[in-house]
Design a protein that fits this description.
Blueprint (H helix, E strand, L loop, with lengths): L1 H37 L12 H24 L4 H22 L10 H12 L4 H23 L7 H51 L4 E5 L5 E4 L1 H7 L9 H4 L1 H12 L17 E7 L8 E7 H42 L6 H27 L8 E4 H15 L7 E4 L6 E4 L1 H17 L9 E8 L4 E8 L6 H4 L17 H11 L3 E6 L9 E6 L10
Parallel strand pairs: 6-8
Antiparallel strand pairs: 1-2, 1-4, 3-4, 5-7, 8-9, 9-11, 10-11
């Protein structure tokens, strides 16, 4: 809407500007004639036949020109009406000035060519011929009136006819020129609208790209930056003038690339809590002083794509293996159940059947967990209010797990905490972490859990922490807890934390173990889920 308004304003300016110039010429001509008459130094033959008529007509012409300034500025009456009125006044005034100066021989009649040319350029179509006809009739009328009122004066109908023919030729040429000008203006206007639309489309696409985009000059001044780049760099302000004010690590990367353009760029972090970013650079010109285009890619998103490809193949393989194992396992489990129902078994044989059942269930659990790996890429992220979700989860967890409300401490954030995550997968991840927390909590008193939601101030990234009051994870084991099939429990499968991290990765989130560094607290292990910035979603 704003673009259309600007376009109409530009068209109006282009339409009225030539009329304003023509009126300026009119004021200059009338003012010069009036000054010459007032100074009594008017050259021959101006006003030679009737000085008073010449002087009066010049003053009237000047007044009309000044009044036209007001009408042109107000753009009232209509453009065509003003053009017709101005041209007719010009023809009448110039004819009177010519008559007061001795007729067509004075040479003033040549000014009619300018009046006809100006009117023909401003009025497109056959009106140009009409203007030339009126001017020619005015010329011939002046000659007829002169020969009738003063028979002794020499009349020159031949010169009047030639000037009239010149007026028609001028009108025809001006009409052709006006047609070309109108076509050029229409084409320029169309191209201008197309360019404006293309510029808006380009800006729309750049601002909504998941890839961060920056454009800087050789002085490191920022000329363009999109929302994704600001989100990746953890910057909310919009008044940075140079890249050094935006991100010092990125500035160092740019300076290194300017010096060593063949070196591969290295990932960097704008802050400790910000995601790892891979920069790419390109020159916008051929010389070194031209601008630099910077692409910023979220390494987490790239790693997620690679992980999805890897797990897609792994999922098909594990699903096939699990399916092949499940059939004989079911037969073994069923045979063990039938054997346990026999009345001829002694205690040692009954114990053996229990071992068969227990390990069959354990293997089946492992198979179920492996089958979940094949469902990892089926996440459907949606916007979730983390505070409301946690309140509902705590109630359901206490009810289903037979846990006291006093054992779960839910600390919501005061800020609006919207995340993007698959609801069922988030339920599975937090449930697994809470079950592990209760299992490894302080069993001597009462296991406790703290669920704390918040937002990282530097990067505006939401997070959720699940903390227990246990002894924590030994330093030697901490780096292995997310590996598949790694477990310290006798009956554990070692896939719980691995699957939880994979589910987080499929939702562009990260699951980390953070040892509690405070010696004065009873809290032990802390698992933090760092969610993706909810603003960085694909909107096209």
């Amino acid at each position: 809407m704003l673009s259309n308004s600007k376009t109409r304003q530009t068209v109006n300016t282009q339409m009225w500007f030539p009329l304003r110039l023509l009126n300026l010429y009119r004021i200059t001509l009338a003012g010069l004639a009036s000054i010459l008459c007032y100074s009594d130094s008017i050259p021959y033959p101006l006003g030679s036949s009737n000085f008073n008529l010449f002087y009066t007509t010049s003053i009237v012409y000047l007044i009309v020109g000044l009044l036209n300034v007001i009408s042109i500025k107000r753009q009232a009456p209509h453009f065509k009406s003003q053009v017709y009125a101005h041209v007719l006044v010009d023809i009448a005034i110039i004819t009177l000035l010519m008559h007061a100066s001795g007729g067509i021989g004075s040479g003033i009649g040549i000014l009619l060519v300018i009046a006809v040319a100006g009117g023909s350029l401003l009025i497109f179509g056959r009106a140009a011929i009409l203007i030339a006809s009126i001017a020619t009739i005015a010329l011939l009328s002046e000659q007829i009136y002169t020969s009738w009122s003063n028979p002794i004066w020499d009349t020159n109908y031949t010169q009047a006819g030639l000037l009239g023919a010149s007026l028609f030729a001028t009108a025809i040429l001006a009409q052709a020129l006006a047609k070309r000008l109108h076509e050029s203006e229409a084409l320029a206007e169309k191209r201008g609208v197309d360019l404006a639309s293309m510029a808006q489309l380009t800006e729309y696409i750049i601002q909504r790209m998941q890839t961060g985009i920056l454009v800087i000059d050789h002085h490191k001044k920022i000329h363009l930056i999109n929302a994704s780049a600001r989100n990746l760099l953890g910057e909310k302000r919009s008044n940075e003038a140079t890249i050094s004010e935006l991100s010092v690590p990125l500035m160092r990367q740019v300076e290194h690339w300017w010096t060593h353009p063949n070196d591969e760029p290295q990932p960097f972090k704008s802050s400790e809590s910000a995601p790892s970013i891979m920069p790419r650079f390109a020159h916008l010109g051929k010389d070194n002083d031209s601008g630099t285009l910077i692409f910023l890619e979220d390494m987490a998103a790239i790693a997620q794509q690679a992980q999805q490809l890897k797990l897609a193949s792994l999922g098909h393989l594990t699903a096939s293996i699990a399916h092949e194992i499940r059939n004989p396992l079911g037969a073994i489990s069923h045979a063990g159940q039938l054997l346990a129902e026999s009345s001829n078994l002694d205690k040692s044989e009954i114990r053996l059947t229990e071992i068969i059942q227990n390990h069959s269930q354990r293997v089946n659990t492992i198979i179920e967990n492996i089958m979940q790996l094949n469902r990892r890429d089926r996440s459907s992220p949606e916007e979730i209010d983390l505070n409301q979700w946690l309140a509902s989860f705590v109630d359901d967890f206490c009810l289903n797990e037979d846990v006291l409300n006093s054992q779960i401490h839910h600390t919501p954030t005061d800020e609006v905490n919207i995340i993007r995550f698959d609801d069922s997968q988030l339920q599975q991840v937090v449930l697994n972490l809470c079950q592990n927390g209760l299992h490894h909590g302080d069993q001597d008193s009462l296991p406790q859990l703290w669920l704390q939601a918040g937002i990282v101030k530097e990067s505006n990234i939401p997070y959720l922490e699940i903390i227990d009051n246990g002894k924590g994870v030994e330093t030697a084991l901490a780096e292995h807890i997310f590996e598949p099939f790694f477990t310290t429990a006798a009956n554990g499968s070692g896939l719980g934390l691995y699957i939880s991290r994979e589910l987080c990765e499929s939702n562009q989130a990260h699951l980390h173990y953070i040892p509690d560094a405070s010696p004065d607290t009873i809290r032990g292990s802390c698992f933090r889920i760092t969610f993706a910035d909810p603003r960085r979603r694909q909107v096209i």
